[in-house]
């Protein structure tokens, strides 16, 4: 999962971080800044169990360097975690992070949450949150979480109209961001420990439950598209696609540029 991008200049990032507000929260050290390019890039220089939040990102990133709209009022957070002790477990990290986000948001009363492989958190069919996992150095990963809270990404990109959700639509009163961060990071910590102790297989059933029902999907690969029925994730977090002949093929996230639900 080595990142396609490299870290920004270490000294420049260190200088930026000296201006951060820093505090302890449930075993994590949180750094808060007003604006950064991408919280994942800046957090890449931090030690494990540190996390960075920014009010806004000027170049928020999605998978395959797609832009992520990070307007003020949203939660843009990157958490640094140790590399899993079993190297193959890293494939499941975006799903583990998605499970942490869903579990935390369920505690706040959000209903109808589901995961869309490999890294989307949806309310019904609208995207509430996205996860981006980067690895810049061998011993740790950066887990970036983008959660729409009070912001309106569709104002900044009209193509997102009717495709996004935000906490403000699902909750009458939104908890303080610090509380959301605390609960989310507590679940992330717990699930990373579980991943190390018991492997991805331990949370595979919970992740499969969060997909909802079986759906027909189209996968955009590098140079082709394939259709079939999403049949859950395997013990490594790979998507299992049942084709029209009934054969099951496993795909990892690096092979699939885009997943579209077509039924
Ligand atoms: C993702 O990528 O969903 C991963 C998003 C991760 C964002 C976090 S914020 C903190 C950290 N720092 C970063 O720079 N990134 C992480 P992907 O599956 O490629 O989805 C990207 C697509 O989602 C875009 O092409 C848009 O269609 C859509 N999108 C962009 N901004 C959105 C938003 N705020 N809410 C919902 N959908 C959005």
List the helices and strands and how they pair.
Layout: H1 10-18, E1 21-25, E2 28-36, H2 39-43, E3 50-57, E4 75-82, H3 93-107, E5 113-116, E6 120-123, E7 126-137, E8 140-147, H4 153-156, H5 167-170, H6 177-198, H7 204-210, E9 216-220, E10 225-233, E11 239-242, E12 248-251, E13 258-261
Parallel strand pairs: 2-3
Antiparallel strand pairs: 1-2, 3-4, 4-8, 5-6, 6-7, 7-8, 9-10, 9-13, 10-11, 11-12
Helix pairs in contact: 3-6
The structure holds biotinyl-5-AMP.
Question: How would you characterize this protein structure?
Answer:
By secondary structure, the protein is α+β, with helices and mostly antiparallel strands. It is 25% helix and 32% strand. The strands form 2 sheets. It has an 8-stranded mixed beta sheet. Strands 12-11-10-9-13 form a 5-stranded antiparallel beta sheet. Helix 2 links the parallel strand 2 and strand 3 (50-57). Helix 3 packs across helix 6 (177-198). The two termini are 30 Å apart. The chain binds biotinyl-5-AMP.
Strand order of the largest sheet: 1-2-3-4-8-7-6-5
Low-pLDDT parts are: none
Ligands, deduplicated:
biotinyl-5-AMP
Task: Give the biggest beta sheet.
Answer: 8 strands, mixed
Order of helices and strands: HEEHEEHEEEEHHHHEEEEE
As a percent range, the share of helical residues equals 25-40%
**Average pLDDT figure:** 94
Strand fraction = 25-35%
Total number of beta strands: 13
Radius of gyration: 18 Å
**Structural class of the helices, strands and pairings?**
alpha+beta
């Amino acid at each position: 999962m080595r990142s396609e991008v490299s870290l920004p200049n270490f000294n420049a990032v260190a200088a930026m971080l000296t201006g951060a507000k820093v505090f302890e929260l449930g075993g994590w050290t949180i750094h808060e800044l007003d604006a950064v390019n991408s919280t994942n890039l800046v957090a890449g220089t931090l030690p494990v169990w540190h996390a960075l939040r920014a009010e806004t990102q000027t170049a928020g990133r999605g998978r395959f360097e797609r832009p992520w709209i990070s307007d003020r009022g949203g939660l843009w957070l990157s958490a640094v975690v140790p590399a899993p002790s079993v190297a193959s477990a890293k494939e499941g990290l975006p799903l583990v992070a998605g499970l942490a986000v869903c579990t935390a948001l369920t505690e706040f009363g959000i209903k109808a949450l589901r995961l869309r492989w490999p890294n989307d958190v949806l309310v019904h069919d609208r995207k509430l949150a996205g996860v981006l996992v980067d690895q810049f150095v061998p011993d740790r990963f950066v887990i970036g979480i983008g959660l729409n809270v009070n912001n309106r990404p569709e104002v900044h990109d009209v193509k997102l109209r009717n495709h996004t959700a935000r906490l403000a639509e699902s909750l009458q009163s939104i908890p303080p961001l610090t509380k959301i961060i605390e609960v989310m990071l507590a679940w992330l910590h717990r699930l990373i420990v579980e991943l190390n102790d018991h492997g991805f297989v331990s949370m595979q059933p919970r992740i499969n439950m969060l997909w909802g029902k079986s759906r027909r999907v189209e996968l955009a690969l590098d140079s082709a598209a394939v259709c079939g029925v999403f049949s859950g994730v395997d013990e490594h977090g790979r998507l299992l696609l049942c084709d029209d002949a009934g054969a099951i093929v496993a795909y990892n996230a690096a092979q699939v540029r885009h997943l579209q639900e077509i039924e």
